[in-house]
Recover the amino acids of this structure.
């Protein structure tokens, strides 16, 4: 069911990250930020049409607001999956036009779709016809050595004709040849000014900027130019930053304790183990950065990475790890 009237503005979002932002990660992030928009890992249309739909689409009710990110390039298939997103209770459907990996190139979707804006327009139009959910597009500012603003301007203008009015701009070119996806996280340079210019040229559209943003002051600078920011690796690797961002952007009184988060995650592990047989290791792997910056953080990470302890499949491993914080001899951490 579409919950749009109750949803917060997309001022802050956690990026979709393959192998990272699964439903356990999102539940954890929601404890840290009640208002940030959360995104699934990219799920291909083929996986939904031919695979295990509940496994791919099941999520926790606490995760709202939540967007489903799709990978695909066939309008009919994307329409089918957008309809599934609404049936399963998602709040947004996002089309991936930014991932540069070989996996998406071989499937003719992801960043290579920026070379076919008319096709993306048709995909968006098909999804819009199939669902009442907002349909958004995540894209790059360019492909390979195409570095002129006119390229991304034409892409946005064309896709908007299909009914999209919300764009997430990864402000770095996608390199489809010559760089690995890992290398492409740092090369070539970021060009935030392209996202800012898009907002100036299309003031009625919503624009979020993504890429290289790690600090609160950087977030605030970007919010002076665009509607929102999307943050990826920093939110995952240093998740407590989400608490500070939430307090500044949404609720000045927001001040949870790490102890309360640990207790909530233990209860979540117990629930998941009981209801779905989820092993504890699948959940706590997302929490390694929770104690970053505290005395004993290294010991905290060591406990949560200990194979022999993880084999015991006991949620209390989180309490054991937390006991290392400020423990004697931990100051060097």
């Amino acid at each position: 069911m579409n919950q749009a009237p109750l949803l917060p503005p997309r001022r802050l979002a956690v990026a979709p990250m393959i192998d990272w932002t699964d439903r356990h990660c999102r539940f954890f992030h929601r404890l840290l930020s009640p208002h940030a928009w959360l995104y699934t890992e990219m799920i291909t249309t083929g996986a939904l049409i031919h695979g295990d739909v509940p496994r791919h689409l099941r999520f926790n009710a606490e995760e709202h607001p939540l967007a489903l990110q799709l990978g695909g390039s066939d309008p009919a298939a994307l329409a089918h999956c957008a309809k599934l997103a609404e049936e399963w209770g998602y709040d947004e459907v996002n089309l991936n036009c930014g991932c540069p990996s070989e996996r998406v190139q071989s499937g003719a979707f992801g960043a290579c779709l920026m070379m076919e804006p008319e096709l993306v327009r048709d995909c968006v139009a098909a999804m819009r016809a199939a669902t009442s959910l907002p349909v958004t597009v995540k894209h790059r500012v360019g492909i390979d050595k195409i570095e002129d603003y006119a390229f991304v301007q034409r892409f946005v203008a064309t896709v908007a004709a299909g009914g999209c009015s919300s764009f997430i701009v990864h402000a770095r070119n996608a390199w489809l040849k010559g760089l690995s996806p890992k290398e492409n996280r740092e090369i070539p340079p970021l060009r935030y000014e392209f996202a800012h210019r898009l907002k100036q040229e299309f003031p009625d559209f919503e624009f979020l900027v993504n890429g290289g943003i790690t600090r609160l002051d950087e977030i605030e600078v970007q919010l002076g130019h665009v509607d929102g920011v999307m943050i990826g690796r920093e939110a995952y690797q240093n998740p407590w930053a989400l608490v500070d961002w939430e307090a500044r952007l949404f609720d000045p009184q927001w001040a949870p304790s790490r102890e309360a988060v640990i207790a909530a995650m233990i209860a979540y592990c117990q629930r998941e183990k009981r209801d779905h047989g989820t092993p504890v290791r699948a959940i706590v792997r997302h929490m390694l950065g929770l104690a970053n910056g505290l005395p004993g953080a290294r010991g905290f990470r060591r406990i949560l990475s200990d194979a022999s302890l993880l084999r015991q499949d006991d949620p209390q491993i989180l309490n054991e790890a937390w006991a290392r914080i400020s423990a004697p001899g931990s100051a060097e951490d």
